[in-house]
Design goal:
Elements lengths: L3 H12 L4 E4 L4 E4 L5 H11 L8 E4 L2 H8 L5 H14 L3 E6 L9 E2 L3 E6 L3 H10 L3 E5 L16 H6 L2 E2 L14 E6 L2 E6 L1
Parallel strand pairs: 1-8, 3-6, 4-9
Antiparallel strand pairs: 1-2, 2-7, 3-7, 4-6, 5-6, 9-10
Helix pairs in contact: 1-5
Length: about 190
C-alpha cells in the first residue's frame, strides 16, 4: 500500500500543533505530537476526557522507546514483546516506570508511562517522518463505545479533528484495543485484556 502522501500530509498537521484522526494497529485513533502539550490538551477536550486519565504514546522502534524511558528495558520485557509479536499478535501497551517526566498528563500513579511499540506500517512511517512519538487514543467521546471502523466514528469527533487520514476507511479493526500490562519484577499485572 502506498501511503507516503498521507504520511506527508499528516506530518504537516502534527508539526503545526494540530491533531489527526488515523488508523492504528488497533482502532481508529486521535493523535498528535506527544511533546506538544497544547495539542494533547485539545485531544482531551475533544474526547471530553478527564485529565486524570493518561493517554498512550506510540513509538516506531525500540530505540525511541529507550529514549522516552531514559533506559533500556529488561530482557524479560524484550522477550514478552517478541513473543507477543510472533505468537499472540494482539498489540500490547506496556506501562513503564520512568525517571524523567515528559508531561504530567501522561503519567499513571508512581511515575509510569503507557507506551506501545507499533507495528502498523502507516503509524511507523508517520512517527519516523515526524521523528517524535505520537499520542494514540481511541476516536470516541469518553464513556462511549469505541468505533470499530471509520464509519462508526461520531460526527462530533469528525467535526473537531484537524485532519482525517484517507486510508483504511472501509476496513474494520482487527483488534478492539491493545492489551495494557505492567511488568514488575518479571511479573505481569494486567490492566486491560
Amino acid at each position: 500500500m502506498c501511503f507516503q502522501d498521507e504520511v506527508d500530509q499528516s506530518v504537516k498537521f502534527l508539526k503545526n500543533g494540530k491533531n489527526i484522526l488515523y488508523p492504528t494497529d488497533t482502532v481508529w485513533g486521535i493523535g498528535c505530537d506527544a511533546f506538544d502539550i497544547n495539542a494533547v490538551k485539545k485531544i482531551y477536550r475533544i474526547k471530553n476526557r478527564s485529565f486524570s486519565k493518561p493517554m498512550i504514546i506510540l513509538v516506531d522502534k525500540i530505540d525511541r522507546l529507550y529514549e522516552l524511558l531514559g533506559k533500556k528495558i529488561s530482557i524479560f520485557t524484550q522477550q514478552l514483546i517478541l513473543y507477543n509479536d510472533q505468537i499472540n499478535q494482539k498489540p500490547i501497551t506496556i506501562i513503564y516506570q520512568v525517571k524523567k517526566r515528559i508531561f504530567d498528563k501522561f503519567f499513571y500513579k508512581g511515575n509510569t508511562l503507557a507506551i506501545r511499540l507499533t507495528h502498523d506500517p502507516f503509524c511507523k512511517c508517520l512517527i519516523q517522518k515526524l521523528n517524535r512519538p505520537i499520542i494514540s487514543t481511541s476516536a470516541n467521546i469518553s464513556g462511549f463505545n469505541t468505533p470499530k471502523s471509520f464509519s462508526e466514528i461520531a460526527p462530533y469527533i469528525l467535526s473537531n479533528i484537524d485532519y482525517a487520514v484517507k486510508l483504511k476507511r472501509k476496513e474494520k479493526a482487527h483488534h478492539k484495543n491493545s492489551q495494557i500490562i505492567q511488568i514488575l519484577s518479571n511479573r505481569i499485572k494486567i490492566f486491560r485484556t
